[in-house]
Structure formats: structure tokens, C-alpha cells
Amino acid sequence: MSEDRVRLSHEGPIAIITNDNPAKHNAFDDAMDLRLFEILAEIRNDPRTRAVIWRAEGKSFSSGRDVSQIGRLQLEMSHHQLMTRGHRGIQQIFDLDVPIFVAHQGWSIGGTFQRALLCDVRIAAEGARFMLPELGHGVIADTGGVAVLFQMCGHGVVSDMVLTGRPLSAEEALRYGVVSRVVPADQLDATVLEMAQKVAAIAPISVKLARRVIRNLHEPAIRTSMHDELLMQTVINKSEDFGELKKAREESREASFPGVWVAPPRPRDPRERS
To answer: Does the domain spanning 2-228 belong to CATH 3.90.226.10?
Structure first.
């Protein structure tokens, strides 16, 4: 049951979201996505909540998406509709009046890492690692995280992570501002809880408005980036390259990419002669 693999609990005014699929390093499937979106809606509509913790059981925060599902979901909707649903679901983070503190241990990969980047504060256990491996699976990062990383790390680092898929260590993540603290693994949950409790004790209107000031500085760029990702990922899903990648994997052979992409026509410059 997805309810068991993504759980919502409460400790006083603090809502706690727990990834609980440790056998797969908390890889998310479609049912878990939907449960996460339901939980965010519950939190948004609960006036008792003053802060949120997002944590995980097991060795990793999340290994991202179950790669066996990429391009193979059998749903009664188009890929574009599926992505739109996902964007609307996770963008509920922007509509919350309370901050989300994310506790990272082990691996934080792909879409779940990007979702964590949309949250307010990230804390890492020593030895935590972060990665965006989407290009190796024939797709692109499409959950807004690239925009956040660009704001934090700059063009060079985000290009390295996106294009080569290289992991970012906890120490590097701290240096670039991806996480605000690195703590011993056995102190991770206690540290995040203490931070959330401190915020929960502050006047909620002050927290809400302070959070809004901060988010107004970067949220428009994230929404614009997510719109671009939606369009580009839809093109990729229909491309010959992606079709070849899926076929090659099914046949256990190396892919031979056509590399063909027909760009949309360039608007005619009125200064050009006919």
C-alpha cells in the first residue's frame, strides 16, 4: 500500500512525512507520488501544523524513480498529462504557509532530490550524496530542481551534475548551500526535529510572511523552469532517440541513436527580405 510507503504522522504541531520503502532505497513509484501529493494537500488544509519534516527510513532518503518504470507506465493519460499532474502535485509546496525541513541520509537521487530542493531547508547526514542521473536514462530532470541548483551552485556545477550525472557529496552540498548543515548520521532526526520545533514555537504569521519574502526571490524562476521542462520532456518522450533507447534495453543491446530533432520554425525577422 502506498500509504505504508509514504506516511504522515504528527508530533504536536509538526507534521512528519516519512519515506518508508527501504527495500528499494525509497524509490518512488506512481502510487507513492500520489500519496505524497495527498499528504501535502492534507498539511496545507490543516491549520494546526506549524512546521513539516520530510525524512526517510532505511539507508537512503530516496533513490529517485524506479527506473524500470521510465517510459513504461500504463496509465490512461498522456505523458504530458502525467507530468502536469506531477508538477501540480509538488507545487503545493509553494502554497504551504509553513516550512519543510528535509533530512537527507545516504542517496538522494533524481526526482525526489529535486522535490527536496523545492523545500525550505535541507540537512544532510555525514556521507550523504546527491545525484541527477536522468540523462543516462534518456530523459531530463523535470521537477524544478535544476533551477534551484542553478541559483545555488551556478552554471558550471549544475551543468556537471546534469550532463555527467556525477554525485555531489555532503561536504560539497554544504559548501554550495544545497544543505545548510551536515551532522553525524545518528543525530540527523534529532537535529531536524529541534529545528522544526524552534520554528513551530514562533508566531505563525511571522513564519508565513518571512517564508513568502524568501520564496518570492526565487519561485518565479522555478515555475518558469518547470514549464520549460514540461515541454522539453514531452518532446523527448516522442523522440526517435527515446524510442531507440527503450527498444535497445528491451533487446539487451547498445542503443544507436538517430539524434534527429526537428526544431520549431524560427520566427521570421521582419527586417529580412522575402
So the answer is: yes
Judged by DSSP in three states, 142 sits in: coil
pLDDT in tens, 6-25: 999 999 999 999 999 999 99
**Residue 40's closest CA among 117, 125, 97, 123?**
97
Q: What are phi and psi of 155, to 5 degrees?
A: -60, -45
Reading the block at residue 52, the C-alpha cell is 513539516
Parse the chain into domains and list their residue ranges: 2-228
Longest dimension (CA), the chain: 70
Cell of 226: 518547470
Closest to 152 in 3D by CA, of 174, 136, 134, 128: 174
Q: Which tens digits make up the pLDDT trace of 20-65?
A: 999 999 999 999 999 999 999 999 999 999 999 999 999 999 999 8
